[in-house]
UniProtKB/TrEMBL annotation:
Homodimer. One of its GO terms (molecular function) is 4 iron, 4 sulfur cluster binding. In the N-terminal section; belongs to the MIP18 family. It comes from Rhodoluna lacicola. This is Iron-sulfur cluster carrier protein. The keyword Lipid biosynthesis does not apply. The chain holds residues 88 to 344 of 360 of the full protein.
Length: 257
């Protein structure tokens, strides 16, 4: 592979978005954050490194495949975000059963052989948990910071903490914690806390202790039917319905990172 453009001297803000377990909305949040940042005029790249559970192309309505020019891969662009995903290289959506070295090589190619151009932000949608991909990215992206997505459920805090800790082991710092599915706004305007409360604060406190530097909660995103419908339809809610409470919460987080 050619030189890694995101090595130590990169000017790009590189964020690894992780979670302890699947289904907490990590990919939805990452896709919407990327689109929100691009909408604010930033140059944004998005790597879907959730190799086994890739969903970014669907969430952004991407059907195009990457094209090759000389030795480089040109990524499809959706909503002004350059996107690459393992799903774009598979025929018939076949499941991926790769071992560590193959995963490492794929991730390395995503970073080094894709024509990203100059980027302000590179967001990486990580597989849930800890594992080979996280370790590869730790080596390949020394300046990256981790964002942990969690639900309010306290029982999940410990696993979420571990996903933040893996970056610390490879010398990366933690940017903060995002709480998703925080509450449902009821017709009378009150909040129903379906998954309890305090999850993000708990994870942030644990990661603060573990890392020895303050880890903030970056924001709380409510449950939102339009958000879910938008991700299913490939229409990110931050553009299609910016007044939706979940969309505006994501927009505010984009201003903080
Ligand atoms: P993960 O990447 O953590 O596995 P996804 O982003 O794929 O999770 O989200 C899992 C499901 O939950 C998807 O169907 C998604 O549309 C839905 N979802 C995510 N966040 C929200 C939310 N705030 N409100 C409603 N549905 C959500």
């Amino acid at each position: 592979p050619r030189q890694n453009p995101f090595d130590t001297d990169t000017l790009t803000r590189v964020y690894l978005v992780g979670s302890g377990k699947g289904g907490v909305g990590k990919s939805s949040v990452t896709a919407n954050l990327a689109v929100a940042l691009a909408d604010k005029g930033f140059r944004v790249g998005l790597v879907d490194a959730d190799i086994f559970g890739f969903s970014i192309p669907g969430q952004l309505g991407i059907k195009d495949k990457p094209t090759r020019v000389d030795e480089m891969i040109l990524p499809p662009v959706a909503f002004d975000v350059k996107v690459i995903s393992i799903g774009m290289f598979l025929d018939d959506n076949k499941p991926v059963a790769w071992r560590g070295p193959m995963l490492h090589r794929a991730i390395e190619q995503f970073l080094c052989d894709v024509y990203w151009g100059d980027l302000d932000f590179l967001l990486i949608d990580m597989p849930p948990g800890t594992g080979d991909v996280a370790i590869s990215l730790g080596q390949l992206l020394p300046t990256a910071k981790t964002i942990v997505v969690t639900t309010p459920q306290l029982a999940a805090a410990e696993v979420a903490e571990r996903s933040g800790a893996v970056g610390l082991q490879t010398g990366q710092s933690i940017l903060g914690v995002i709480e998703n599915m925080s509450w449902l706004v009821q017709p009378d305007g009150s909040r129903l806390e379906i998954f309890g409360s305090g999850g993000a604060e708990d994870v942030a406190a644990r990661l603060t202790t573990l890392s020895g530097s303050p880890v903030p909660v970056l924001g709380q995103i409510p449950l939102s039917i339009p958000l879910r419908e938008g991700s299913d339809a490939g229409n990110p809610i931050v553009l299609s319905d910016p007044a939706d409470p979940a969309a505006s919460a994501i927009g505010e987080i984009a201003l903080k990172i």
